[in-house]
Every structure is written in C-alpha cells, then in structure tokens.
Predict the structure of Putative methylthioribose-1-phosphate isomerase.
Amino acid sequence: MKTMFWEDSQLVLIDQTKLPHELVYYRCKTYKDVIHAIKTMKVRGAPAIGVAAAFGMALAELEGVDLQKAGEEIKAARPTAVNLFWAVDRVLKSDNALEEALKMYDEDIETNKAIGKHGAEVIDDGDTILTHCNAGALACVDYGTALGVIRAAFEEGKKIKVICDETRPFCQGAKLSVFEMQQENIPVKLIVDNAAARMMQTGKVNKVVVGADRVAKGGIANKIGTLMVALAAKRFDVPFYVAAPKSTFDFENSIYDTKIEERDPNEVLYFGECMVAPEGTEVENPSFDIVPSDLITGIITEEGILEPF
Ligand code: MRU
C-alpha cells in the first residue's frame, strides 16, 4: 500500500489521521492543499512530507504560481524534518517539477529497500526490537526506514518480534506502526511510552531501531521521547540504531540548531475526544527531541551503516 500517489493531476494521500480504523484518501488539488495535509498530519514522517512537498511544487507549477513563493510556503508547513527543505530545493533546481517529484517518489522506495538490506545485517534471529513513533511505509512512500529494517530482517526469515511505543501525544506507534506490523504478520506488542525502560531492564528488548527527522553534527532529531529511549538503551546496554536516508542529513549545521516544532496543546490535553487535564492547564508540546551521537550505535543509510558524527 502506497502512502500517496499522483492521479489526474492531483496528489492523493492516505489520510493518516483516520488510520487504523478507516482508510480514507485526501485529494490535494492545489499546493495549498498539500500544505494543509502536512500541517494537519494527514501526511507525516520525514520522507513522506518531503515527497508530498515535491508534488506540492508540481501542483504549484500547474497552477501557475511562482515556484519560489510556493516553495517558501511549503517549507514553512513544518520546521524540523530536513526532507521538506531538501525536496523543495531539489524541485527548484530541476527543469520540471512533476518529473522531479515522480523521480523522488520512485527513489524513496529504492532507498528504503537499501536501508532495509543494510539494517537487516544488525538484526539477529530471535531479536525483540523496540521502535518509537512510526518510521514505516506510512512515513515514506512505501517500505519505511526503521520499519524497513524490520521488514527486511523478517523477509530474510529471521524470527523477530517488535515492540511499539505508543508515542504520545499523537500515538503514531499505536495507530500506525502496530497497524503496519499486523498487516505483514510480524509479531508485535504495544507498550505505553513509560514502559520502554522497563522492557530493556528486564531483557524484553534487545535492540532499538528508530527513524530520524534530521541527522546533523552531534546527533539526530526524532519524535519526542526518542531521547528517553536512547538514554535507557545506553543504561541497559541495548544497541540503539537510527535508520535514515541521506535526504534527512544536514552536514552543515549542529543538531542543536534544529528548530523543534511546538504543536497544539490540545494534543496533550485530550486523549482522543476525552479531555484528560483540568480546564486551563498550561502545556508544553515539543514534537521532537535530540539524541546526542554518544547514545547512537550506528546510523543505517542506503549506503551502509555510518558512525554517528
Ligand atoms: O510528527 P511525525 O509523525 O511526522 O514524526 C515522525 C517521526 O518522528 C519519524 O520517526 C521520522 O520522521 C522518520 S520517518 C521515516
């Protein structure tokens, strides 16, 4: 199942806010529709928002909008993932926005399969792998990065199990990663985020694989809570791998220069439809955190496994 596709001069996206219970598609007819889809998390995950942004540029071209202006607006949709900026800049340098977007679409799948192949080498028969958030097919065009590594190891016949952190507040682990694993019949269990350290302390997890929104000098940025998982992994000697394509890398800047997205307080105040805190509660809702390089065992890319830098 592809997260998105181009049809009748429109970008058609799975509306991920409706998963896992409903499979609903959202049709982007304008580049502003793509911006809306990214802001509201109908499409999310660094590689997926990158490719969606490229199609957004293709729509802008069809609409006759100035591409520089559309590019600036698209880049402002979410601040943390490198892929969004990388995709817009790549289209701006190309001769034809749609052709470039379609190329990036195909490349995403090939890249993820290569990440999977390299990553599967560090997965052993019998491993139980913890993952945080969703760095799966749904976070990309298909196959996934962290879940791509898990898929590849499973396809090689390794008997593995997966533990998904729920990933409050948006619950990408519960809603999306569990769903993807179940679709593939990969054994999976769901835990609350607070249980991750306990799983490692009791030997119930022996590897961690997560994705990244940014890989830069000094570490990586990924979904809020990744830092706590990495700290626990270090404490309990559990290898902690990051799977990410080169389009997520920023070789110029320090990871501490990353702009961390702050999201709507209601994501924290409510659990689904149910308000869980008193009226008027003040909230901080950072969407990402930074894992320093010394907590990372290796960065799995399409070109092989790199040392954190
Ligand atoms: O807020 P999200 O759902 O876009 O955050 C997604 C993540 O943090 C993923 O781990 C990351 O983008 C890598 S996806 C291959």
